[in-house]
Design brief:
9-stranded parallel sheet; globular; 14 strands; about 30% strand; At1g61320/AtMIF1 LRR domain-containing protein; LRR_At1g61320_AtMIF1
Length: about 240
């Protein structure tokens, strides 16, 4: 398969149990099955352009890296509710990858080391650490970025100007699946302001109830090219008895 020119070849894992039903044992079982299948079909996987994995726990910590090495033609790679038996630093290097989605996964750190064609990244529902478990290396074409964080009151806020490094995205989505706003308002000037200099679309989803919107003003001040702004507020519903 890898020797043929294929425009699109997709492989998607569908497990018997849905994400919220899966135990750690289920994920280990599904992970073992996938690894066995993967190792028997290396030539087929080498020709894939799209790979979507979900509900898998890998016993071998280096297996995720093996996927990147084997699947050289990938344009899209998605992980949903995946992890390894021991927490790892995942270094992502790939010449062709243009879209990467990591949702509800448990890696100690994800380092986007070298992704020259990456244009779209979703890194969602991470559990807050002292520092965000994501770092940006060489991602010169990154335009669309979606981030959401499960942050509690004890967790530190994140300075986006530091976190996003040298990136300069056009479309930014921030999700707040948490007790508090996890983004630190900043007074940006000079080099720091370049992070939002090209921003055209900003989406803020699930803002916790009780926060006013003054903290969002720094986006408006730092993003002179902003054209669209979307916001939703998460309301805690209370049952009322008559």
């Amino acid at each position: 398969m890898v020797t043929h020119k294929i425009e699109k070849a997709e492989f998607r894992v569908l497990t018997q149990k849905k994400r919220l039903e899966c135990t750690i044992g289920d994920m280990l079982t599904y992970g073992k099955r996938f690894v066995l299948f993967f190792n028997k079909c290396l030539n087929a996987f080498a020709g894939l352009t799209c790979l979507c994995l979900q509900n898998l726990r890998f016993a071998e910590s280096d297996f995720v890296s093996n996927i990147l090495v084997t699947c050289k033609q990938l344009n899209y790679l998605g992980f949903l509710n995946c992890d390894t038996k021991s927490w790892i630093t995942l270094q992502v290097e790939h010449a062709q990858l243009s879209e990467l989605s990591i949702v509800n996964c448990r890696f100690d750190m994800v380092e986007l080391t070298w992704l020259p064609k990456l244009t779209c990244l979703a890194f969602e529902i991470w559990i807050a650490f002292n520092e965000p478990p994501l770092s940006f290396g060489y991602v010169p074409l990154l335009e669309v970025l979606s981030l959401s964080n499960v942050a509690y009151n004890r967790h530190k806020m994140v300075k986006l100007s530091t976190f996003l490094g040298e990136t300069s995205v056009l479309d930014l989505k921030l999700g707040f699946k948490c007790e508090k706003i996890w983004v630190q308002p900043e007074c940006l000037a000079g080099r720091q302001a370049h992070v939002f200099h090209q921003l055209r679309i900003l989406r803020l989803f699930g803002i916790p109830e009780g926060y006013d919107l003054t903290w969002t003003m720094f986006f408006l001040e730092a993003a002179p090219s902003l054209e669209e702004l979307y916001m939703t507020v998460r309301v805690k519903w209370k049952w009322m008895r008559r």
